[in-house]
Known about the structure:
Layout: E1 24-25, E2 30-34, H1 48-53, E3 56-71, E4 81-98, E5 107-112, H2 123-135, E6 138-143, H3 146-155, H4 180-192, E7 207-213, H5 215-225, H6 227-230, E8 231-232, E9 242-246, E10 278-283, H7 284-289, E11 298-300, E12 303-310, H8 343-360, H9 393-396, E13 400-403, H10 413-422, E14 424-427, H11 430-437, H12 440-456, H13 462-474
Parallel strand pairs: 1-8, 5-6, 5-7, 7-9, 9-10, 10-12
Antiparallel strand pairs: 2-3, 3-4, 4-6, 11-12, 13-14
Helix pairs in contact: 12-13
Amino acid sequence: xxxxxxxxxxxxxxxxxxxxxxxxxxxxxxxxxxxxxxxxxxxxxxxxxxxxxxxxxxxxxxxxxxxxxxxxxxxxxxxxxxxxxxxxxxxxxxxxxxxxxxxxxxxxxxxxxxxxxxxxxxxxxxxxxxxxxxxxxxxxxxxxxxxxxxxxxxxxxxxxxxxxxxxxxxxxxxxxxxxxxxxxxxxxxxxxxxxxxxxxxxxxxxxxxxxxxxxxxxxxxxxxxxxxxxxxxxxxxxxxxxxxxxxxxxxxxxxxxxxxxxxxxxxxxxxxxxxxxxxxxxxxxxxxxxxxxxxxxxxxxxxxxxxxxxxxxxxxxxxxxxxxxxxxxxxxxxxxxxxxxxxxxxxxxxxxxxxxxxxxxxxxxxxxxxxxxxxxxxxxxxxxxxxxxxxxxxxxxxxxxxxxxxxxxxxxxxxxxxxxxxxxxxxxxxxxxxxxxxxxxxxxxxxxxxxxxxxxxxxxxxxxxxxxxxxxxxxxxx
Length: 478
């Protein structure tokens, strides 16, 4: 994943949004199922056997509607306003859900798919899909970016013939079409509706969350400045109950095809205060790449705001929980072994905290940011691990030094990108381990206590802690 880095970007999570006096009810679009055949199946489809093992199924839809187009208001402090122009849109919806509606949790996560690599990817599903299925959550992937739509049509022109035509424009087109902001709202309204068009008509939707990572998180910044304010439900409530933005390292998406680029310091680059909880999750690699991205925690008008910086997490966070799998430290094709820190487990716990906030009113936990010196450089302990931030037991009671930028052995550009995403790790030698813990029994006792503390503080879920505890029992530590 290639980041478009904005060194001067400053984000303020508590930027106020000027309210509008008029409220427009989010319309519900049309949805048509795209059946799977021997010659035609969804791009980005899950492995059927893996879904079936969890009693889940997958179905793809073409959703279509009519969107208002937006332009920026008269001042940078105002949200975007509708221009009066309307545009038809047709997008792809990929739905993974429990086969039996009665087993569904009532939570629906709508992930804006990230096409930074030229076609759709689902980085948040890759991190937390197993957690969603364990919980009985419904996951919905929505294709909104131009690159993703174009890749779908290239992959199967017949199956995806009905997608938006994406006409050429006289100016440089953004990564996300102008109609997407209303489309995102209308898809959410459809999923909450009693319409027969609703793919989740048989499911009780109690919580609807919007999420995105990377460029998709940048899309959500613009959505919050535009359709979130104007497109509402019939009770004047927001369409989405909460937002999770991950790895926000890019500029906010342009609000329209011909909108001029915003300055890095423009308030519309900032995550606005909204009448719904907003959580920003940054890895250590994200923070190291964009050191000026800083958000302050706080609650405004009853809506929670949180910034979580996950220490030790690389840019290309692995979904596996292999931080204690110490054997085979070969880094080929990278110089160093790849970082195996279990970022997914921290993200799972954040999803659970959002659920508890929405369902039970339990406040989101607060975490210290990663520590920096006066110049903004991340501070590290004597063994090389970062200080501060959200810290899971594999870091608080470490056997490894985790790094976030790897190098390729052959110096090639492709391998260089892969190794940069993979990060690095170094296994402590026997002298370091004995200095830190004395012996294996002492380390294991300290580690197990850290697992219990992380569960109690809601930074780790009990099923995930059980996995780490099992790994620790057989890890070749000393």
